[in-house]
Design brief:
single chain, about 160 residues, mainly alpha
Amino acid sequence: MTKSFPNFLHILASIAFITIIGAAIYEHAAVVPVWTAAPPHSLYMFQGEYGLQAANFWKPVHPVTILLLAGALFTNWRQASRKQILIVFGCYLLILVITAAYFVPELLSITTSEYSTAASQDLRSRAQTWERLSLVRLSTLLVLAVVLLHGLSAKQIKN
């Protein structure tokens, strides 16, 4: 294995991880404010034949990121950056477990609610809770991205 291959996998893992963050920022800026505005009326964007299918992005991007992080961890095992990659990998897996246990089921429960022009205070409250917790999750991912990039930059400074 060449000396640059571990760096290359670390860079690819960083790009994949930061892509997830970019998509989450986009959703929080452009999509979440719309569907949380007045559910169930505002949930129309998810329903019907032409409803938004965000899962088409989220389902493949996570396994790719996991594989790249695992590859970066494996190829950098004897490097000092192993610690940063391991922290990010472990925390990311934990975030995915929490996402599968709470965020996805709650989002599906809210967004598949029966359409109505009347707003539901219960759905609005649940949507706001989901949004606040999702912003905490996003903030955690941002911190983890700094950790991941620090491991990469520390290698560059050392060389």
